[in-house]
Design a protein that fits this description.
- The protein is mainly alpha-helical.
- It has one domain: Proton glutamate symport protein.
- Helix content is 78%, strand content 0%.
- It is built from 19 helices and no strands.
- Helix 2 crosses helix 9.
- The protein binds aspartic acid.
- Aspartic acid binds next to helix 16 and helix 18.
Length: 419
């Protein structure tokens, strides 16, 4: 019997076939109503957008529940308070560093120069881009009406409210166990729904990429490759240079050994594109192969899977420059600084499930007045980058966990050094 293709393989196949079919539609099929109206703007558009909308449907409930659960874990462990502050500080610092690397490399590589935007002008992602001042952005973090924020999909106020709910639930303990259980179970429901929707990802990806290529042909290929190469390069720097230097400086552990032992977890994250699903494997590997105490990792790893997304913020940093260049909008130094802040915050609001980083990118784009429709440009090829960045996301959590564990005297070096 033929073995069923895994989701990742299906998606890769969909990407390739979609690109080929898109190019064929562009160059071989005669233009006219059938090609342009029925196929490209009809079937491919509707199915691609349908998929995107399904993914968008998940975001608010998913981020809310996973943050309530995450902050509940911080609140109920007083002894881990110190570890919590240290961990959060480390997470924020590495994320800000990651965005900076992304922006710097994108300003050298120029991934968006040369893309013919007129050919792909779309109204796909409808949200209107509007620039708000820093003061307003900060004030807007506090929700006037949390339900209103949820209805509008404003991530930052949702995060603030979720943190409050989680911390207070932890404080109330067993008195509010029904509500706590409700959130953690609803979180499971949302995770399950994500997985169900991901099943049709190959179809969605096929339609998105085919439509892109059918519209732009090869003209899109090179700028896309440059963008993908840029993201991949910045991810590699973060994962194999920055993290390893940090690990060595803080712990004097052998970085090569770390990479070798952690590689299977990275592979798992790569194939699932889900930080959340990687949590159990990550905790287990850190404990059994690296000698990290479970007491620390069972707290820092789920927290990291919820709030620490260095890989995602790298994609967002490069995407900002790419989209700005594609639309011919210059970015000032002030804009770049804003992106460092908003992408770091967006990383907190990105749930550890596939493709959410693409949705929170809207927040980063609008923080510097870039059109959120630009997301449509990178959507079709995002899956591969999602896999890569998820591997980086969870590696960042593991490096931080190892360092914190070492500093707390909760790292068994014998286990780490054992072959
Ligand atoms: N898939 C990523 C993760 O789970 C999140 C994202 O960037 O979409 O870590």
């Amino acid at each position: 019997m033929k073995k069923k293709m895994g989701l990742s393989t299906q998606i890769f196949a969909a990407l390739l076939i979609g690109a080929v079919i898109g190019v064929l539609i562009h160059y071989v099929m005669p233009s006219g109503t059938i090609r342009d109206k029925v196929l490209v703007e009809g079937i491919l558009y509707v199915m691609g957008q349908g998929f995107i909308r399904l993914m968008q449907m998940l975001v608010v409930p998913l981020v809310f529940c996973s943050l309530v659960c995450g902050s509940m874990a911080i609140g109920d462990t007083k002894t881990l308070g110190k570890v919590g502050i240290k961990t959060i500080g480390f997470y924020l610092a590495t994320t800000a560093l990651a965005v900076t690397i992304a922006l710097a490399s994108a300003n050298i590589i120029n991934p968006g120069i040369g893309l013919d935007m007129d050919a792909v002008q779309t109204s796909e992602v409808a949200a209107a881009a509007q620039s708000t001042s820093i003061v307003d952005t900060l004030l807007n973090i506090i929700p006037k009406n949390p339900i209103g924020s949820m209805a509008n999909g404003d991530m930052l106020p949702i995060i603030v409210f979720a943190l409050f709910v989680g911390i207070i639930l932890a404080k109330l303990g067993s008195k509010a166990s029904t509500v706590a259980n409700f959130f953690s179970q609803f979180n499971d429901v949302m995770m399950e729904m994500t997985m169900a929707i991901m099943k049709i990802a190959p179809v969605g990806v096929f339609c998105l990429i085919a439509r892109t290529f059918a519209t732009v042909g090869f003209a899109a290929f090179k700028p896309m490759l440059k963008y993908m190469g840029n993201v991949t390069f910045a991810l590699a720097i973060q994962c194999f240079v920055i993290y390893q230097i940090l690990l060595f400086i803080f712990t004097r552990l052998n970085p090569l050994k770390f990479i070798k032992k952690f590689a299977p977890v990275m592979g798992f994250a790569f194939s699932t594109a889900t930080s959340n699903a990687t949590i159990p494997m990550s905790i287990d590997t850190l404990n059994k192969k690296m000698g990290v105490s479970k007491q620390i990792s069972s707290f820092t790893i789920p927290l990291g899977a919820t709030v620490n997304m260095d890989g995602t913020s790298i994609m967002q940093g490069v995407a900002v420059v790419f989209i700005a260049q594609a639309y011919g909008i210059p970015l000032t130094m002030g804009n770049l600084a804003t992106v460092v802040v908003t992408a770091t915050l967006a990383s907190i609001g990105t749930a550890g499930v596939p493709s959410v980083g693409l949705v929170t990118l809207a927040m980063v784009l609008s923080s510097v007045g870039l059109p959120t429709e630009g997301i449509a440009l990178i959507m079709g090829i995002d899956r591969i980058l999602d896999m890569l960045r998820t591997a980086v996301n969870i590696t960042g959590d593991a490096v931080c966990t190892t360092i914190v564990s070492h500093q707390e005297g909760a790292l068994d070096r014998n286990v780490f050094n054992r072959e």
